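Hi R.,

Here's the input for the NAP complex you asked about:
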Amino acid sequence: MRLAVIGAGAVGSSVVELAADYGHTVTAYADSQSAAIDAGGIDVDAAFDRKQADGIVGDDDPAAAVEGPYDVLVEATPTTLGDAQPGFGHVETALETDRHVVLANKGPVAERYADVRALERDSAGSVLFEATVGGAMPVLSTIADFDPEQITAVRGVLNGTANFILSRMGAEGLGYEHVLAEAQDMGVAEADPTFDVDGTDAALKGAIVANVLSDGGNEYTLADADVEGIQDIEGSALELAAEDGHTVRLIVEVVDGEVRVGPRLVPEHAPLAPTGTRNIVQLETEHAGRLNISGRGAGGPETASAVLADVGRL
Amino acid sequence: MSDSTDEVRSYTVRLELVDKPGALLDALDPIASNGGNLLSIFHERGNLTPRGQIPVEVDLEATPERFEGIVEALHEAGINVIQAGAERYSEAITVVLSGHLIKTDLSDTVSRIQEATNATVTDLSLSAPEGTEAESEEPSSARIRLATEQNATQAVIDTIREVAEDKSLRVIEPLGPGGDL
Ligand SMILES: NC(=O)c1ccc[n+]([C@@H]2O[C@H](COP(=O)([O-])OP(=O)(O)OC[C@H]3O[C@@H](n4cnc5c(N)ncnc54)[C@H](OP(=O)(O)O)[C@@H]3O)[C@@H](O)[C@H]2O)c1
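And here is the predicted structure with NAP in place:
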C-alpha cells in the first residue's frame, strides 16, 4: 500500500520508519509546516535528516500531502477536542477521494464518531483506529472479533502516565507532586501532563470504546463521560488502601452505555492494578468470562505497530 | 466473587437473654470461640420479650460452615436463639475518603452515611499526617468498611458520594460490585 503519513512526531516518524518492514511505501509525509511527496516513495532518510536539521520534512505543502498520491492516509497529528481539527479535515479529504484512513489521532473518533462514520458510508475507503486505544494492545480488534454485542463491560487502565504516578506513590509512599515531577524528569509525563492526570486522555479512549460497543447506536463524546482525575490525590489514601490489600488506579469503565473515569480501589494483585506505565484492558464477555489484554499503551514504535497492523487489515 | 463455602458472609442473630449479669458475655463467647467475627451488638435494655427476657440482636461475620457451629454452640449453652441466618448484611464495601475529614466532622460523616442507608460501619482507619486536632489544615484520609444488605451497595455508594460532595471530600470507590474484581 502507498501511505500518506500526516504528522511527523513520535508516532508519524515511527510509522514512516517501519512502513517498509511491513511491505508498504510512504508516498507522502507531512508535519505542520512542510511535506515530502513522491509517488514512487519518498526518501525516508532525507526527510528524517531535514526534520532533524531544519525542522521540516521537505519542500512540499502539507495540504498537498493530504490530497496526494496514496491508498491509505495515516493520521498522526495532535489529538484535539471539539471539532477535532486538523485531524478531522484530513479524514474528510481522504474519504471524499475514496481512500482509506488509519487513525492514531483520537480526536475524530472520540469527538465526532458519527460524522466520521457518515463520511465512511459515502466513501469507497474505510476507517480503522486500533492505535487510538491502548497503543500496541489489540483492544478494538479483539472487540471486533468477539462482536461488540458479546461484550458486556470494558474496564481498563489506559493512561500510562497516571498509572506510573499512582503505582509509584503506592510503592514508595511519596507525594503526588514529587512523583509527578520525577515522571516529568524521566520523560514519562509530558511538560503539560494535564490531559493525562485529569482523566481526559483516558476518557477519550473510553468514549471511543463506547462508540465501538454501541455500534452505530448512541454516539459518545468526552462530554458524555463522567470524569475525575488523580490530581493531588493524597498519599495517605494510597497507604490506607494498601493496609487493606488494595491500591488505587485510574480506571476507565464502559458499562451499560455509561463511560466513567476515576481513581478506584482495586485489589493490589488484581489484573487491573498493573504497575509502571503498563496498560491493561479487561473485557467482560457474555459467554467467555473475563479476558485481559495488557501491554504497552503508548510510545512511538508501539503505536506505529498498531497503525501498521490496521493497514494490514484493510 | 465465588459461591465457595469458605466465603465469609454476614449474619444477624436474634437472641433472648435472661436478665442477669454476665448473660451477654456468656452469649458472645460461643460466637467468638467458633470463629465468628462480631460486627455489632444491639442490646435493647428495658425492652423485654413476652417471656420476660432481654432481646439482643447480634451482627456477625463467619463462613456458612462456622455459622452453623455458632448456632449449635449457642443452643448448647442454653441460649434462646429466636432467629438466625437472616442475612441482613451480606455485602461489604470499602471506600477511602480524603480531605478535611476532621474539620468536617468525621463522626457526623459516618453517622449520616449509616442513617441514610441502613449500612453499618464495621471498620474505620484514619490516617492524619498532622494529627487529629480539629483545626488541622492538612488533609487526611480514612478507609471505611461498611456492611450492607445485598443489592444495596449502589445506594450506599450514592449516599457516600452525596455526603462527600457536601463536605468537599474526595471519595475513592471500589471497582465493581463489592469491589473485588
Ligand atoms: N505518542 C503515543 O504514544 C500515542 C499513542 C496513541 C495515540 N497517539 C496519538 O497520535 C497522534 C500523534 O502523536 P505523537 O505523539 O506523534 O504527537 P507529536 O509528537 O506531538 O507529533 C504531532 C505531529 O503532528 C504535526 N502536525 C500538527 N499539525 C499538523 C497539520 N495541520 N498538518 C500536518 N501535521 C501537523 C506536528 O508537526 P510539527 O512537527 O511541525 O510540530 C508533529 O509532527 C496524537 O493524536 C496522539 O494523541 C499517540
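One thing worth noting: Chain A touches chain B through 23 residues (CB under 8 Å).

Cheers,
M.
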